């Protein structure tokens, strides 16, 4: 008699966290400029996180707090192409949801990239793209539980 065991692969790679149909990596191994962070995500068939809803934003905020590292995280939002015209890269989508900290964005010192700001309770803040921060990558899971990428 032969016994068959079903093996199912985890939908997210090791070290990534699943929330709904998305896998997230909160990268804390190195702090990078926004462009380098975006490139790092692309090496993992991912992109800097594109926050589409308050539910997703709440998940990201809660996980950032729960990590307890008290640091900022780059997300995929920028107005580098046109001041004040915020878009998600690499998708080019416009902002349908936002969670700016009070008084933000302020373009304080040519600030064209966005992060979840620890000092602002993980609400969004614009910052100079060449500053180095941790970052959050995301990649979608298809209906069959396979990572798209």
What's this model, at a glance?
The chain is of the alpha+beta class and 149 residues long. Helices cover 15% and strands 28% of the residues.
How would you portray this structure in words?
The structure is a single chain. With 149 residues, the protein is α+β, with helices and mostly antiparallel strands. The chain contains 2 helices and 8 strands, in the order ββαβαβββββ. The protein has one domain: Mannose-Binding Protein A, subunit A (Mannose-Binding Protein A, Chain A, Roll). 15% of the residues lie in helices and 28% in strands. Strands 1, 2, 3, 4, 5, 6, 7 and 8 form an 8-stranded mixed β-sheet that branches. A hairpin with an 8-residue loop joins strand 4 and strand 5. The longest helix has 14 residues. The protein is globular.
Backbone CA Rg: 17 Å
Spell out the CATH superfamily. Mannose-Binding Protein A, subunit A
Q: What is the second-level CATH architecture? A: Roll
Number of helical segments? 2
- Strands, count: 8
Helix coverage percent of residues? 10-25%
Percent of residues in beta strands? 25-35%
Q: What average pLDDT do the residues reach?
A: 91
> What's the CATH class label?
Alpha Beta
Question: How many separate structural domains?
Answer: 1
> N-to-C SSE series?
EEHEHEEEEE
Low-confidence residue ranges: 1-8
Distance between the termini: 40 Å
Indicate the structural class. Answer: alpha+beta
Could you say which overall geometry the principal axes of the C-alpha atoms support? globular
For the largest beta-sheet, the strand count, sense and barrel status come to:
8 strands, mixed
CATH topology: Mannose-Binding Protein A, Chain A
């Amino acid at each position: 008699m032969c016994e068959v065991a079903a093996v199912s692969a985890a939908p997210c790679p090791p070290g990534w966290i699943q929330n709904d149909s998305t896998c997230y990596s909160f990268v804390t191994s190195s702090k990078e400029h926004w462009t380098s962070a975006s490139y790092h995500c692309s090496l993992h068939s991912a992109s800097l996180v594109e926050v589409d809803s308050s539910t997703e934003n709440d998940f990201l905020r809660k996980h950032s707090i729960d990590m307890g590292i008290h640091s900022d995280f780059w997300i995929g939002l920028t107005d580098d192409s046109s001041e004040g015209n915020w878009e998600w890269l690499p998708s080019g989508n416009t902002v349908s949801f936002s969670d700016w900290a009070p008084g933000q964005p302020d373009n304080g010192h040519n600030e064209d990239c966005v992060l979840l700001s620890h000092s602002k309770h993980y609400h969004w803040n614009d910052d100079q793209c060449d500053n180095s921060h941790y970052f959050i990558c995301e990649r979608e899971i298809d209906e069959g539980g396979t990572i798209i990428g």
